[in-house]
Amino acid sequence: MNKDTIRQISVVVALILTIAVNIMSNALPFNGLTAPEIADSFDVYFVPAGYVFSIWSVIYLGLIAYAIFQLLSAQRENPRLRQTGWWFVLSCAANSIWLFLWHYGYFALSVFAMLTILISLIVIYQRLGIGRQSVSSGERWLVHLPFSLYLGWITVATIANITAFLDSVNWDGFGISAEIWTFIMLVVAVVVAGLMAYSREDIAYLLVLVWAFVGIGVEQSDTSQVANAAYLAAVIVAIFVIIVIIQKFRQTRRPAMATS
Questions:
Q1: Where are the alpha helices (DSSP H) in 104-223?
Q2: Which of 43, 122, 221, 242 is the 20 to 30 Å CA partner of 256?
Q3: In 3D, which of 158, 149, 156, 136 has the Cα closest to residue 63?
Q4: How confident is the model at residue 215, as a pLDDT?
Q5: What is the extent of the structural domain holding 153?
Q6: pLDDT, position 258
């Protein structure tokens, strides 16, 4: 068995174990609490409504498609998959560890686990050349799309994880209200979205942020200034999506016009 085959099998095994741990964490659940129940226990505003977490089903379906695609013999020596396979295994390990840390109240350590997932996905995203390299339609739909969705969600989850940790240690926010901090975090997330729209034209990544921001608005409907800020952030990112779609449409029209 050569190194490429070991990597391909490791990706599949790592994903299976991660999905199993995720299912058990909420089915048992670990420490008698589900992940949404723990999230609701914090007095923070950067938390979306429970239905938003259903995006994990879409992410995992995409990752299953990726795991099967990279397992194909034709993809064994794919240089991009070679450069990212072990980083994905690392992200899976960090994902499983995060669940144990989160459910058993080790929130400071959970931030480090979440950052490990985030960094792993950023490396994968860069090495896959998402939004920059021309690849086959199979690789675009079965590899690029799943990781765009995953990175988009983990971007939001990292911010939420850090805010939850700070609440757990009763951080006073330097005297700034929780509402203002939520507004600041939304601004940061919108800036990141703008950079991704400009540099990568990644519609899937942007749509995940729209989904999350609308969910925050729904969850925080009793606090109008937070809900309105979240909805405004969703609208701004949605505008980024429209701009990217227009740009892509113009790019596809140019070759046709050049040959006419």
A1: 107-128, 137-139, 145-168, 178-199, 203-219
A2: 242
A3: 149
A4: 97
A5: 3-252
A6: 55
Residue 9 inside a domain? The answer is yes
The percent helix, strand, coil of the chain (3-state, each to 5) is: 85, 0, 15
For 104, the token pair is 């058993």
Indicate whether this model's pTM tops 0.90.
yes
In a domain, 191, yes or no: yes
77 close to 190: Cβ distance less than 8 angstroms: no
Query: Residue with structure tokens 């942007």?
Result: 206
Number of domains, the chain = 1
Residue in 240, 226, 225 with CA at minimum distance from that of residue 192: 240
Residue with tokens 């995006």, as numbered in its chain: 55
Residues of the chain falling short of pLDDT 70: 254-260
Evaluated on CA atoms 172, 177, 180, 186, the torsion sign reads positive
Instruction: Give the DSSP letter of residue 52.
Output: G
Examine residue 29 and say whether the peptide bond preceding it is cis (omega within 30 degrees of 0): yes
- What's the chain's length in residues? 260
What is the distance between the alpha carbons of residues 180 and 171, in angstroms, rounded to a whole number? 14
Q: Show the tokens assigned to 211.
A: 């989904």
Q: State residue 41's pLDDT score.
A: 87
